[in-house]
Amino acid sequence: xxxxxxxxxxxxxxxxxxxxxxxxxxxxxxxxxxxxxxxxxxxxxxxxxxxxxxxxxxxxxxxxxxxxxxxxxxxxxxxxxxxxxxxxxxxxxxxxxxxxxxxxxxxxxxxxxxxxxxxxxxxxxxxxxxxxxxxxxxxxxxxxxxxxxxxxxxxxxxxxxxxxxxxxxxxxxxxxxxxx
Length: 180
Description:
Elements: H1 3-11, H2 15-36, H3 40-57, H4 67-85, H5 111-119, H6 123-134, H7 139-146, H8 150-178
């Protein structure tokens, strides 16, 4: 069955088609959920919520643009909605601080370790870092998506980079002292 037909069948609540769509895209969308979630279990919950939203809103997809991109946007918005509901950003009014360059030496720091330390960032920093650095959203878009001001988005990105830089530097020192 073609993707177009699969989508059409999902629009009429065909559970077999919904299962096929889930099988087809769940691993890619789980990666998105994992990137924005605090841990594996939360990512699983977010994936389920995202698919519920996808099936509820699939009739809104008109075939224009990438279907996978549409799924990804719904998934990101579903996860972000959870954080908006938890008021992650409520009492934060941070001044913009000096932007930090973050350079990673892949020979010393594995991608798995990098993803792990990104996931360990406080929610407000992790979300902004992922949206800006990994998914390419602008600060204006992030501010709108998270219902925060532009300065808070920039500040949170800078703080995320500072934390990551410090964590990576500590990790490198530990690795170097172990190799002596």
